[in-house]
């Protein structure tokens, strides 16, 4: 059975859906590790936030590269991985600073704070990934 090609607009939404699913999986890893480290192991929430972010980074990169943006090439890894890591380091700094503000000054529950922060970071990350990190190079004819 032959696969029916999707119209261009449907492909666009498929990629966004894949991004959200992959991000949801990485976010689930992040929240699970954050909860485990903070509530079960008793680690200070800011340290737990950093470790949870770092652990979910690997899951996120692999899913975004190979599944969301369907970039199976290995020849661009030396460019993509540092760019992705740089973006994630900036996200980590922003995430940690906002966690501190939300918890210490706004007195929000740390898990609720993480949901709000991650949503904002995810929105900007999609466009950075699509435009710069995993951009599709059109082959020259």
Which stretches of 5+ consecutive residues score pLDDT under 50? none
DSSP strand (E) fraction? under 5%
| Mean model confidence by pLDDT | 88
Q: How many β-strands, per DSSP?
A: 0
H/E series? HHHH
**Biggest beta sheet attributes:** none
Shape: elongated
When the domains are counted, the total is 1
Number of helices: 4
From the alpha carbons, calculate the radius of gyration and give it in angstroms: 17 Å
Structure explained in plain terms:
By secondary structure, the protein is mostly helical. The protein has one domain. The protein has helices at about 10-40, 45-70, 75-105, 110-135. α2 packs antiparallel against α3. The longest helix is centred in the N-terminal third of the chain and has 33 residues, at about 10-40. The protein is elongated, with a radius of gyration of 17 Å.
Secondary structure blueprint with pairings:
Elements: H1 8-40, H2 45-68, H3 77-105, H4 110-133
Helix pairs in contact: 1-2, 1-4, 2-3, 3-4
Summarize it.
The chain is an all-alpha fold and 141 residues long. Helix content is 78%, strand content 0%.
Salient structural properties:
4 helices; mainly alpha; 141 residues
């Amino acid at each position: 059975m032959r696969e029916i090609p999707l119209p261009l607009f449907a492909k666009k939404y498929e990629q966004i859906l894949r991004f959200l699913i992959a991000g949801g999986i990485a976010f689930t890893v992040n929240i699970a590790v954050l909860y485990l480290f903070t509530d079960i192991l008793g680690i200070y929430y800011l340290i737990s936030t950093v470790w949870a972010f770092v652990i979910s980074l690997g899951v996120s990169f692999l899913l975004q590269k190979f599944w969301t943006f369907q970039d199976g090439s290995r020849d661009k890894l030396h460019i993509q991985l540092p760019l992705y890591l740089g973006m994630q380091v900036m996200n980590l700094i922003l995430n940690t600073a906002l966690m501190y503000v939300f918890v210490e000054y706004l007195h929000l529950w740390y898990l609720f704070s993480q949901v709000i922060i991650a949503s904002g970071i995810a929105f900007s990350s999609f466009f950075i990934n699509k435009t710069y990190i995993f951009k599709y190079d059109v082959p020259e004819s």
